[in-house]
Amino acid sequence: MQEDADGAAEAAARPEVGVGPWEGEWPEGSHWDPELLREGDRRNVADKYRYWLHEAIVADLDTRRHDFHIAIENWQHDLNIGTVVRTANAFLAKEVHIIGRRRWNRRGAMVTDRYQHVRHHPTVEDFVAWAEAEGLAIIGIDIFPDSVQLETYDLPRNCVLVFGQEGPGLTEEVHAAAEATLSIEQFGSTRSINAASAASIAMHAWIRRHVFGQRPLP
Asked: DSSP class of residue 111?
């Protein structure tokens, strides 16, 4: 009994996520979700989207998505993919592309894949053909002998940033197809950083360049 009481007290002490039922007269507009207005909105969404229909949120995001895409090679069901998708949603990437296996672990995405367009390419060849048809520069993020520092590279506005598996990194096929391959400068003892962390840094570099107008160091 004491354990039950302790558990209830702990649950009551946890901060409540989201908002409860709408108070007062309901707002007018086709973007509101009647069920959420009635029951409350406990989703992990920005405050401006509280009580909105899922479809309405996606439609609004589509009006202001950025011009960069994200691609991830998925040959071994990389657990980092979910985290990369979540970050792509945070920085409002145009689309996320999965190269290789269609299935991927969505746990790390924290449901953000519902708001992010995800496209599958069975092969690198298929992905490269798509990127060329869209006029997008393929930019690999990995450590190769010919890699250029991300910190000094002027990222193009219309591009697709490509990330490889944790460990093996990008395949030689992507390396050969890339307009440039960029590395992230590191100062510690390890050779590389987590793939999801690298993706976050690269996406933010694009945001700094094309949203805030901050040019890279010469």
From this structure: T
Q: Write the pLDDT tens digit of every residue in 15-37.
A: 778 999 999 999 999 999 999 99
Considering the entire predicted model, what is its pTM?
Answer: 0.89
Nearest to 72 by CA among 115, 131, 121: 121
> What does the block give as tokens for 184?
């992230």
CB neighbour list of residue 38: distance below 8 Å, 6 or more residues apart? 21, 22
Residue percentage of the chain with pLDDT more than 90:
77
CB 56 within 8 A of CB 30: yes
> Is the pLDDT score of 180 beyond 80?
yes
Element (H, E) at 207: helix 195-210
Six-digit token string for 126: 């298929």
**H/E run at residue 127:** helix 124-134
CB 81 within 8 A of CB 105: yes
